[in-house]
Design brief:
Blueprint (H helix, E strand, L loop, with lengths): L6 E6 L1 E3 L2 E3 L3 E5 L2 E2 L13 E5 H9 L13 E3 L11 E4 L2 E8 L13 H4 L6 E7 L1 E4 L3 E4 L1
Parallel strand pairs: 6-7
Antiparallel strand pairs: 1-7, 1-12, 2-3, 4-5, 4-11, 6-10, 8-9, 8-12, 9-10
Length: 144
């Protein structure tokens, strides 16, 4: 039985060769986010989770970054960056397992040159999909 939710899904994104898409629903399986251009590329980095706090931090430092600029698949209202690899989150129908912290990415400099250094520990975390299903906006997030 699930305890109280720790947060909610605010926005969903996936990448295509033509740019970022903000759907109402993501479908995931053990290879990642179906329709994402990174699908089945690296199972350990299948899902990038970022928190609204990262965008708030950028805004506090005068950097105006639109949601999805960090490359996230899930934007949530809970800060998961303290979670260690192996921690599990139930998000909608999907069970995710934290696999690693997000590495620094020079593509963030396209938004603002200060962003990679500012968010070096606050960009996001990667998770792999343990059980398939759908995630929709406003789904609850549970720490298992």
């Amino acid at each position: 039985m699930l305890s109280n939710p720790i947060g909610k899904v605010l926005e969903l994104f996936y990448s295509t060769n033509d740019g970022r898409v903000n759907p109402d629903k993501l479908t995931l399986d053990k290879k990642g986010v179906i329709e994402d251009k990174y699908y089945n590329k690296n199972i350990q980095r299948s899902v990038l989770i970022a928190t609204k706090e990262s965008y708030d931090l950028a805004q506090y430092h005068g950097i105006d970054a639109a949601y999805s600029a960090l490359g996230e698949n899930l934007l949530i209202d809970y800060n998961p960056y303290h979670l260690k690899p192996g921690a599990r989150l139930q998000v909608g129908e999907v069970l995710l397992e934290i696999s690693q912290n997000c590495t620094l990415c020079n593509s963030l400099a396209k938004v603002d040159a200060r962003l990679p250094k500012l968010l070096k520990d606050d960009r996001g975390i990667f998770a792999k999909v343990i059980s398939s299903g759908n995630i929709v906006k406003d789904d609850n997030i549970f720490l298992l």
